[in-house]
């Protein structure tokens, strides 16, 4: 599920209650936040909050957080700055560089370098005269 599909799903969903909206906003702002912490804050069980988030977004909280972290990573890569993968992994909340690489392959089907190249203007290639 890509960014556009997630946005369509959110737009088509019924207006969530305040607690669910708050939890989704927190996941959106900080994909590393734990669902247990969010559930405690709203006074619900982890399972109940997870189901409310799934109904609202079409994704369970863990997958929603993965997508948000991936979106942030893509936004950084689109800036065109050549990445130092280990530093980027740490800055984006991945456990390490191999974790970043696995997530990129799982969510895009491409290695980090190939994905970065494809995000560059002209696919990272040279402009022929």
The first-level CATH class name of the largest domain: Mainly Alpha
Point out poorly predicted stretches.
Answer: none
Shape: elongated
| Percent helix | 55-70%
Overall description:
The chain is mainly α. It folds into two domains: 3-63, Orthogonal Bundle (Arc Repressor Mutant, subunit A), CATH 1.10.10; 68-123, Homeodomain-like (Arc Repressor Mutant, subunit A). The protein has eight helices and no strands. Helix 3 crosses helix 4.
Core attributes:
Arc Repressor Mutant, subunit A, mainly alpha, elongated, 129 residues
Give a brief rundown of this model.
It contains 8 helices and no strands. With 129 residues, the protein is an all-alpha fold. It starts with a helix and ends in a 10-residue tail after the last helix.
Which secondary structure elements does this structure contain, and how are they paired or packed?
Layout: H1 3-12, H2 18-29, H3 35-42, H4 46-57, H5 61-78, H6 85-91, H7 97-108, H8 112-119
Helix pairs in contact: 2-3, 2-5, 3-4
